[in-house]
Amino acid sequence: MADLDDDALPKPRRRGPRHPWRFVAAICVTGLALTLLSSWAAARADRNTEERLLEVQTKQAAAVLSTTVLIIQQPLRTTLAAQAAAPAAERAAFQHVMSVQVGDGETSLFVAASLWRRTDDGFRLVASRGSDPWLVPRSEQTGAILERALTSPTSVVDRLQRGERARIIYALADPTTGFVVLTERTIRDDRRSRVESDSAFSGIHYAIYLGHRTDLDSLTTTDVDPADLPLDGLTSRAEVPFGDTVLTVVTEPRYHLGSSLSQRLPLILFIGGLVLTAAAALVAFRLLWARAGAEANTATITSLYERVDTLYEEQRALSVRLQRSLLPHAHPRIPGMEVASQYVAGARGVDIGGDWYSAIPVGDDGFAFVVGDVSGHGVDAVAVMAQARFTLRAYLLDGHAPEQALEKCSRQLDIMQDEHMTTAVVGVGDTRTGEVRLASAGHPPPVLVADGRAELVETRTGPPLGIGPASYRSVTVRLDAGATLLLYTDGLVERRGESIDVGLERLCDAVRALGNEPVDALVGDGVSSLRHQDASDDIAVLALRRTP
Amino acid sequence: MARFSATSADGVCVVAVDGDLDLAAVDEFLETARSASAGCSALEVDLDRLSFVDSSGLGALLRLRQETTERDVGLRLVNMPAAADRLFRITGLLDLFDISSRQA
């Protein structure tokens, strides 16, 4: 037996992907790219939504602001209308309207208001309210604004600055009557304004500038610290007509205006994508690892199989050699007898069977022969066969009768120990008389071929060998000149699905037709015609013909 | 392929053989019969569905006979098909077993 040491095994080859890490890296890169792309798309969609919503809110705020502008301008229009209706009343209408609108600037619209009328050499102050008007008579600033108002089709809005403090001036003129109304409105020093939670400005930060410019000097109102201006990030801008200028509103969302899902979606997609990418990479890595392992195993197993195949071949070769060595290559010469034999291995593959035959000259005129069968296959069966064969041979050479040889041999075999059933048919003959004594231990009956007839010999068989105390009986047949005695093992007659009687009959028919052939041909042709192609069992055949 | 099933009633265990009792089947047959007969006073091998028996199968029955004899368990082959009965006769086993043939 060849030894199965580790060195004899080829090292497992790794035939996995050449660069498993590259494969995993490619998955990671692809996954990350997809993740970033989807996150970016979601963020972009969210921003578009925000921009749209902010625009809507800004328009709402601008609309509110327009209303405020109307509220501020209304007292001026009312005053001028009243003055025009009653020019002689001079101050009465002005006083009436402004008495409710001028105050401290916190609860009232204006801190100061004045009514002017154009004269030939300038403007005359007709009336005024408010404690601290910045636009006083005979100042250039006042004159300029009054002139602007008279030439402007709309009201004139301007801004006055004194140190940190600022006021917005509104001037509206009636060119027909020459009246001009001037009002002053304070701007809070910090420019801050509270935002009512239900107002149009509740969702946004805003900064309102007078004019188109959005610098600090133009700032009139904001809800944030002016130091934080200008508003940045996502902003929207709207302009509201205001007299001869505009109010510019710049807004920024106070918080996310759209749905929270829309806001969180980019993050969710990003985290989800990272997790999926990591999972995919992990799975791919494990699959590659498992595959590499499986391939390594396959390589190992394949080489093991090859090794086992080799070992089987060696074992079979050994068994065949053992068996063949136990079967005679050439039969000893037995005077007056022609002997032929054949052994056919079954179509079984590895194992060989325990069939055997022997032909033994005994003394001058005697001969003995055996055909036996050890059930099962393999070296164990061959070993039992060897034991039975040499035991029987020894007893027969010693001159024992066939039934005695069987009985003694049976004692030396033990089916419990050997695990194989052994059957044998034994004969002892006399070449001078042709008489042959036959005894059988569970073996199929021999065939006597003579005078164109072929008949089974009723051997009065006893039990197989090795199953405890047993006695055997012998029968005597007479071989006439030219008669043939054919012994065989069950492989020649047994077929699945049919009674052994059918096989025995087929055997008799076959050898009857071959009765006149030379004994070698009888055996050869008989075996080839009877042997079933797929027969798994071995066949041993021995034929003895008394020389004609 | 052969199948084996074991049942027991009233201390009698029955192992039924279904299929071929050949070299490929003898180990499983012996194992089934051994475990089935543990604790039984008698073992019946039901051969009603036996389709084929070769010398290995006969050898297995002989080994089972030796084992049951040693353990003082009665062994009986029941429903023996005619073909098997003939084989038992040819191989001199008929007298070694308590056999009841299949009812016609």
Provide an overview of this structure.
The complex is a heterodimer of chains A (548) and B (104). By secondary structure, chain A is of the alpha+beta class. In chain A, the strands form 4 sheets. Chain A has a 5-stranded antiparallel β-sheet with strand order 2-1-5-4-3. In chain A, strands 10-19-18-15-16 form a 5-stranded antiparallel β-sheet, with helices on one face. The model of chain A is unreliable at 1-16 (pLDDT under 50). Chain A is 39% helix and 26% strand. Chain A folds into 4 domains: 6-50 and 259-322, no CATH class; 59-69 and 192-253, no CATH class; 86-187, Beta-Lactamase (2-Layer Sandwich), CATH 3.30.450; 326-546, PPM-type phosphatase domain (Phosphatase 2c, domain 1), CATH 3.60.40.10. The longest helix of chain A is centred in the middle third of the chain and has 67 residues, at 260-326. Chain A contains 9 helices and 19 strands. Chain A has helices at residues 20-85, 91-101, 140-151, 260-326, 379-397, 402-412, 415-418, 500-513, 519-530; strands spanning 112-119, 122-129, 156-162, 165-174, 179-187, 204-210, 219-222, 236-242, 245-253, 337-344, 353-362, 366-377, 422-430, 435-441, 447-450, 453-456, 474-478, 484-488, 539-546. Chain B is α/β, with parallel strands linked by helices. Chain B is built from 3 helices and 5 strands. Chain B has helices at residues 26-37, 55-70, 82-90, and strands spanning 3-9, 12-21, 42-53, 74-80, 98-101. The model of chain B has no long low-confidence stretch (mean pLDDT 89). Chains A and B meet through strand 12 of A and helix 2 and helix 3 of B.
